Amino acid sequence: MKIAFTAKGKDWSSSMDPRFGRTEYFLIYDEEKDKIEFIDNSEANQEAHGAGPKTAQKLFDLGAQVLITGNGPGGNAASVLDKMELKIYIGAGDMTVKAAYEAYKNNQLKKF
Amino acid sequence: MKEIVIISGKGGTGKTSVTSSFALLAGKNAIIADCDVDAADMHILMQPDYEIKEDFYSGELAVINPETCTQCGICADICRFDAISIINNKHVVEPLSCEGCGYCARVCPVNAIKNIDLKVGQYFISNIKTGTKMVHAKLGIGADNSGKLVANVKNEAKKLALKLNKEFILIDGSPGVGCPVTSSLSGAHFVVLVTEPTLSALHDLKRVYVLVKKFNIKAACIINKWDINTAVSSEIKDFLKKEGILHIADLNYDEAFTKAMIQGKAIVEIEDSEVGKILKESWETIKKNIS
User: Fold this and answer.
1) How far is A93 from chain B (nearest CA, A)?
2) Which of B115, B116, B148 has the most A C-beta neighbours within 10 Å, making it the best mutation to test the interface with A?
3) Residues of B with CB below 8 A from A51's CB?
4) Shortest Cα distance, chain A CAs vs residue B2, angstroms
């Protein structure tokens, strides 16, 4: 599975970013290949409008199947993500990316 | 560090009156953020000093270079917002009408049009009368709001709270249910809904609670001016019970709020205020319920 995390940094020890649309980075973890990459999302925060849908499109282009985040996407982003086959888990806003992954694996996160 | 956001749905229910009181009660333990950037008013009660000012840029503005422009008029023809007019025989972009879409710049045959970053306001980090800091902002006239400035204000507040090791961030949220509210709510640990017993307030309370519920944030409610319509107050209480929203307090309609405001004070700063007493108890209840 390809798992996307909304994050404030570029590696496993970074804090999760509770926001979706204006998240600083995405961390993408490919479970099969055990590979992690980070995507800079700061230009979404440059946008006056449409940050949510723009970020959702980015997630689609990255091919993620699971999204782990803080509170979840707002209304506009959610409408776009709805069209994707994406499982969204929330409640990880105050964790590190590593802890968020563990929580997800242990079924401790809530489904959006 | 816990983020508490105070929202209402319908405006005018008393968000700022409540937030300012909690700010006074939290004192040095909190960083305050005024995320109602469209109609900021926390500064009236918190006496900020505007120590740090930063320009805020959002969106773009088209600008026609009069020297390169051949006055062909293609830009004026295609502009969807009627933002280009002829003044003194020259084509000019009207800044308040331009939406920064960039279409005119694209079609100009001589590249006379540039899109520049638009300064739409400022945000501030101030020292306030409670001995702590407040992050607040002011949008310019006709400036467009979105989640962006709210996100910036919140991020600054969070940075400060972590750096100064504060226990709380108190956020005066945006009214309504649009992107600014979503932006206010993202990352919150606790939401206080301030409402009043009118049908429009109840309607918008329900709408905004849909957002809060989706974001899975714990919520509590204060019914302000509850005695002006006890029937609707009852309806609100039923709604709170049904949704499992903690009902913290009912505040009587009290002109002491206005008298305090005129003096630039939060109601808890007024001695012997009944409403002030209830808000003090409310703050204790919130602190108990926040983890």
Assistant:
1) 7
2) B148
3) 146-148
4) 10
Residue-wise pLDDT tens digits, A51-102: 999 999 999 999 999 999 999 999 999 999 999 889 999 999 999 999 999 9
**Contact partners, residue B31, CB within 8 Å, separation at least 6:** B132, B133, B134, B135, B157, B160, B161, B164, B166, B168, B169, B170
State which residues of chain B have pLDDT below 50: none
How many Cβ pairs within 8 Å bridge chains A and B? 59
Q: DSSP letter at A9?
A: S
The backbone torsions φ and ψ at residue B257, rounded to the nearest 5 degrees and listed phi first, read -55, -50
Looking at domain A2-27+52-111, its CATH superfamily turns out to be Dinitrogenase iron-molybdenum cofactor biosynthesis domain (3.30.420.130)
Q: pLDDT tens digits, residue range B107-128? A: 999 999 999 998 989 999 999 9
Contact B179 A93 (CB under 8 A): no
Q: What ipTM is given for this predicted complex?
A: 0.90
Supply the pTM of this predicted model: 0.91
Spatial separation of the C-alpha atoms in residues A15 and A95, rounded to whole Å: 6
Contact B215 A76 (CB under 8 A): no
Domains with residue ranges and CATH for chain B: 2-47+128-289 (3.40.50.300), 58-119 (3.30.70.20)
